[in-house]
Design goal:
Blueprint (H helix, E strand, L loop, with lengths): L1 H21 L1 H8 L6 E8 L5 E11 L2 E9 L5 E13 L4 E10 L7 E9 L9 E8 L6 E9 L6 H20 L5
Antiparallel strand pairs: 1-2, 1-8, 2-3, 3-4, 4-5, 5-6, 6-7, 7-8
Helix pairs in contact: 1-2
């Protein structure tokens, strides 16, 4: 009888996992305020004060969250790309923080970094619509302020369209980053 119970439990878990991982509507309902899946675009201000456009994908499932990103310079040339290592998502506080490994177009001595973002949302039960915060590569001495929004809930995107949206977002929201003051 115990083996049958374990088998039924495993079958229910597998079916549930399949639907949560493969049905966007169900995934959104299950993760609720923790829901971040999709393509996010925005910008950050680099160490030398230059704008960097960013595109990130948040891949979310029962097993966790993976963040992959790329940044481009003001001429839309590839600048860097990164993948999350360890993610902490606190929906109650509205905070997202993670460690990442970064690769740039130039060689760097240490490819590690950290990121911290505040989630902007309608209320504590809703998913984030925007992220405001900073990232810091371990080999640099300065935090880079950043802001981004969810372009769509899909993780595949057209780079040119996403870059155009990031640039438009920069033009309308750059004051958020330049005038942001820590309290």
């Amino acid at each position: 009888m115990g083996l049958i119970s374990i088998g039924v439990y495993r079958l229910v878990f597998l079916i549930t996992s399949y639907f949560v991982n493969n049905c966007q509507w169900i995934k959104k309902q299950v993760f609720s305020s923790y829901y971040l899946e999709g393509t996010w675009v925005g910008f950050y201000i680099g160490v030398l004060g230059n704008v960097r456009y960013l595109i990130e994908t948040f891949e979310q499932n029962i097993d966790g969250l993976v963040i992959k990103g790329t940044s481009y310079d003001e001429n839309k040339n590839l600048h860097s790309f990164w993948t999350s290592e360890s993610i902490n998502l606190d929906s109650e506080k509205g905070e997202l923080s993670y460690q990442y490994k970064v690769r740039t177009t130039r060689e760097k001595p240490d490819p590690n970094g950290i990121a911290y973002f505040s989630m902007i949302r309608e209320n504590n039960r809703k998913p984030a619509s925007m992220l405001v915060g900073f990232s810091a590569d371990s080999h640099l001495t300065k935090k880079c302020k950043a802001v981004e929004y969810r372009l769509n809930e899909k993780t595949n995107y057209d780079i040119n369209k996403a870059l155009k949206k990031a640039e438009e977002f920069y033009q309308t929201k750059k004051d958020i980053v330049f005038n942001y003051k820590k309290e």
